[in-house]
Amino acid sequence: MTLTRPPATTPAPAPLVRLRSRLTAPLLYVVSFAVALGLATALVTLAGHSMGDALLALYQGSLEGGASIGQTIDETTPLLIVAIGAIVCARAGIFNIGQEGQLIIGAMAGAAIGLFVPGPGWLVGFLALLGATLAGAVWAGIPAVLHYWRGVDVVISTMLMIFVAMQVVSFAVNRDYLLQETAVKGQILSPQSNLLPEGVRLPRLGEYPDFNLGTGFFIALAITGVVAYLLRYSRWGFRLRMLGMNPVAARRAGVSAAALGGGALLLSGGAAGLAGGVMLTGSVYRIQAGFADNVGWEGLLVALVARNHPLVAIPVALFFGMLRAGGGFLASTGVPRYLVSVVTALLVLAAVFPAAYAELRKRRRPAAVEA
Amino acid sequence: MPPSTEQSRPAGTAVNGTAVPSVELSHITKRFGSVLACDDVCLSVNPGEIHGLLGQNGAGKSTLMKILTGLVTPDHGEIHMAGSRVSVNDPLAAAGLGIAMVHQHFSLVGRMKVWENVTLGERGRVDRDQARRLVKEVGERYGLVVDPDAHVENLSTGERQRVELIKCLRRDPGLLILDEPTSVLTLAESRELFSVLRRATTDEHKTVILISHKLDEILHATDRVTIMRGGAVVARRDTAGTDVRELAREMVGRELSKWTAASAVGAMDALIVGEQTAAEGEVLLRLTDVHATARDGRPLLRGLSLQVRAGEILGIAGVEGNGQAALGDLLSSLLDVDSGTVEVCGSAVNAGKPGAMHRAGVGVVPEDRHGSGCVLDMSVAENLVLADLGEVASGMFVSPRKLRERAARLIDEFDISVPSPDTPMRLLSGGNQQKVVLARELAARPKVLVVAQPTRGLDVGAIEYMTERIYRAAQDGIAVLLISTELEEILTLAHRVAVIHRGAVVGEMKRADVDLERLGMMMGGQIA
Amino acid sequence: MDSIELILASAVRLAIPLAFAALGEWIAERAGTLNISLEGMMLGGAFTAVAGAHMTGSPSAGLAFGVAAGLLVAVVHATFSHRLSVNTYVVGLTLNVLVLGLTSFLIMRTESRQVDKLTIPLLSDIPVVGPALFDQRWPAYLLIGLVPAAFWLVHRSRWGLEARAAGENPGSADVSGIDVNKRRRQALMICGVLAGFGGAYLAVAEVGTFNQNMTAGRGYMVIAAVIFGGWLLRGTLAGVLVFGAADAMRLALPALGYELNPQFLIASPYLLALIAMTFFAKSHRGPAALGQPFVRGIT
């Protein structure tokens, strides 16, 4: 990584430099995405498959026909909700990485309510979503309390809580007196819950195999819109930004970090919990240990790629959702669906690289050429 | 990276006849964005001398020294040492050339032991016993006593400075650079430091560059002085052949006004004392026997009591690190009391509750405006609001229109030069940032105004502006608490002076009764 | 008596791969990187080791392949977070997704022979501790040298002094002439080597084959061990042993007729780490600049 600079005696004409730097930014993005896709192609080809087939399958699975588009949107929904929560938290200067756990705990609470609370379906469904949100918030609340009470690092504690959450759910779905499915004659019990009753599920618009989508998507969009507006224009958003950018100045100005920051952490957990609830009542309908399926992690990545802008998170989440939906279709071509994870990760790296590289260039200290 | 030797020296830069300068910087230019930090600077220092580098904050002294120590790479210019050209690309290269620097902000790692810190940045095997022995040896040679096995985080600021000095001296550098070394020291400690430096130059023929903005310090301790202003060298003098007035004029660049003469320059005899009569208003701020501790259990305030009346400026004098920061934090609700009370306008305030002081009517212009006075990544308009959201909000929402209106009004009233209210705070000059902070605090119509180190790091115009504003605030009936380590600043403005030492007020006197000798002793803790 | 011997032996056996990775993570964290990609390093090491063993026919050569994979992950992580200053958690997280995807994608139904056991005669017959300590696969005995070496590296060597300074106070380290990000990159690479070896050990020494996601969160468990151990080497190793014991009990207790909730045992490392952080906050101080990127000029 040697930086070639013109000799000091002949300063480069300024307009040219400016033009070059204006061109390099988009160019860098193009190059790094090309490299990412190139790597993915090489991988697929080396494994003896055709990248063309894989791309076609990804397209078919995510965009071709109403059902596929609906599938993409279903995958997008929880990612977007998780990302919005992560964004609120990041704005307050707190890094919550435990969404995977908060999500599954939310889903578990939703399942418990949906399965065991009597009442009209729409009400129980609503309560399930509410319960999921609260459970997610509680799960994020524990790190919040530990942080503001004992100074425990939030990144570490939210991460550790993921694994505790997994085992809590695993515990619940392995106990027939808790969430494990009820035995039908002669059936071997699996560690999973019963399916939610029809009435409790989120309604779907349209019928398979035509275009159909879960109404959860509208919940996600509404949350995104509201959060974007509040962050931009409300007193709460103002104070949240102040806290995130300079906690000391914020405290001086009367912002209580524990209340506002802790609140943001709870909101972020609540969002992850709600995402779990929406997955549960909108598409999956039952809880099991593998329920979260990396949605929490990927939702967090959506927020990061969107650079903490709620509205930018919508297209990013849709893109991630497309990959996830397309992944289901890959199997038909013989390409393992795990290709999607690889591509996702490569694209995230490709997305963060250009800005970071430009920043490094700007610092342009020859230290980069050390010995 | 071995220093490239090239025997040609640019003509016309040698200053002092026959002696080859031990270090010579020629035509150094460094630009940070739009700021020209060093503009074609030439500096030549002879072996065995203490060379003063005088200039106000922002004059380019620190940048120049960072270039010499390899922390900053210049855009142009050359460095010669003992006649041969060298390239200093990083701190390690500087160390290899025998250049060592005592930084203004210490370069120590708190959770490591003294000997570990001293050996940090060396090469080769870590030899604990040898390092300990060296700490003791170097300490004895220069009279810097410190326990090699103590953890640095447990040491006082004075002791830390000793460690810092030992860290530099143990490498036996030919050139020692000190950046504002006395800002955290008592008078006695400063004298001790200068005698150490004198010993190093006369006995061991080392070369010392002393960066300072304090005239008496330069006059007292140096052989020659180079004066910088606005990134350029404006004068070179033999210390013996100059006086305070000349130095001050060169440093500031014009005849001094009433305010700057005293507060910017830092010379006792340049003082012009206004006719300050203590107002007999009601007591607006009263601290009674306040005790406070840091998170890690260190005591910060130990029974501090003071009161400030309406229309009065109370100056808190003292050596840095004696509880001034804690006092400022306390009055900004950043620190809670263990015992004692804080009363504003006669009613007690719950100090540790976020924003409580602000609500009670205490405005604060804090010591570190970057750290807590403003939010650099928010706009000027937003920074003019921060706590007073109510004024620009309708219901739950912030009204962008009201926000801009308020900003426009304050920018006009306080003469802040800024392209637009939406400009990010980060892009403003230090002086304008300070104006924003002051404007915000005064706009809240405070009963009490706390100003901590209000002019630190500002240019002359801004210093004058701040000083006048503070004076006017008191005239308008605000109780002003001025916390400063610049004695001159306090003597210029204050009606009464209180001395803070080890977290308590140890003495108090009317401005008219100030006896400098006595004040100095109190600040050093010799008189209770 | 017999069952204690059995559980102890199995605890040590399960702790060994963790111990290799823990040494690495400890070094990386002391230099200021909370290395989340440890999971990816281990998983990559496990996969590559089996693939390498399959190709070369030698399980020992497989170990070398595993080390290379761990190092590769570390190089990518170090470049992104300590050259380009990208948030280290983002990078770590992404790398974990990448490695999991990659290994799952490339998975081969191959078997690897296990490396040989090195049973030390006589000593292995000592009751209770004998089988645990003296009847392991041969690479396990590398730990005898690696543990003191790691301690020496961090606490006695020049490099360690500089790396610790980089983790505690990067600003001061920089001013003292230490290339903070270089030390952090190096620490991360050492971590990659050790974690890759740990993963490889798991695959070719313990299991003898590669399963999808076979590390199953062991990387995170190791991170928990470093936290549990209060960022001290002895504490970290104690954590690894305790977590190994929890795992051993989960496997062994049902067979021995005891009821102990397996989910609780699986969750226990994470709970213990949380408890340690909560209640021993004073002694459990991580490096002050842990997880914070260092950029010169921002003070």
From TrEMBL, chain A:
Bilayer-spanning residue ranges: 27-48, 76-94, 101-117, 123-142, 154-173, 211-232, 253-275, 312-332, 338-357
Keywords recorded for this protein, A-Z: Cell membrane, Membrane, Transmembrane, Transmembrane helix
Pfam families: BPD_transp_2 (PF02653)
Coiled coil: none
Localization per record: Cell membrane
GO CC annotation terms, alphabetical: plasma membrane
Domain of life from the UniProt record: Bacteria
Gene Ontology molecular function: transmembrane transporter activity
Keyword Transport found: no
CDD domains the record matches: TM_PBP1_transp_TpRbsC_like
InterPro entries: ABC_transp_permease
Membrane topology term: Multi-pass membrane protein
UniProt cross-references to PANTHER family, sorted A to Z: ABC TRANSPORTER, PERMEASE PROTEIN, GUANOSINE ABC TRANSPORTER PERMEASE PROTEIN NUPP
Protein name (database record): ABC transporter permease
Origin species: Sinosporangium siamense
TrEMBL record, chain B:
Annotated keywords: ATP-binding, Nucleotide-binding
Record bears the keyword ATP-binding: yes
GO molecular function, one term: ATP hydrolysis activity
Highest taxon above the source species: Bacteria
Residues of the ABC transporter domain: 23-255, 285-527
Nucleotide-binding in keyword set: yes
Record PANTHER family: CARBOHYDRATE TRANSPORT ATP-BINDING PROTEIN MG119-RELATED, GUANOSINE IMPORT ATP-BINDING PROTEIN NUPO
Protein name: ABC transporter ATP-binding protein
Source lineage: Bacteria, Bacillati, Actinomycetota, Actinomycetes, Streptosporangiales
From TrEMBL, chain C:
Principal cellular location given in the protein's record: membrane
Pfam families, sorted: BPD_transp_2
Lipid bilayer topology: Multi-pass membrane protein
Keyword DNA damage: no
Domain of life: Bacteria
Residues spanning the membrane: 6-24, 36-55, 61-80, 87-108, 138-154, 187-208, 220-243, 264-281
Keywords annotated in UniProt: Cell membrane, Membrane, Transmembrane, Transmembrane helix
One Gene Ontology MF term: transmembrane transporter activity
Stored Gene3D superfamilies: ABC transporter involved in vitamin B12 uptake, BtuC
InterPro entries, alphabetized: ABC_BtuC-like (IPR037294), ABC_transp_permease (IPR001851)
Compartments, record wording: Cell membrane
KW Transmembrane (keyword) present: yes
PANTHER family registered for this protein in UniProt: ABC TRANSPORTER PERMEASE PROTEIN, SUGAR ABC TRANSPORTER INTEGRAL MEMBRANE PROTEIN-RELATED
Full protein name: ABC transporter permease
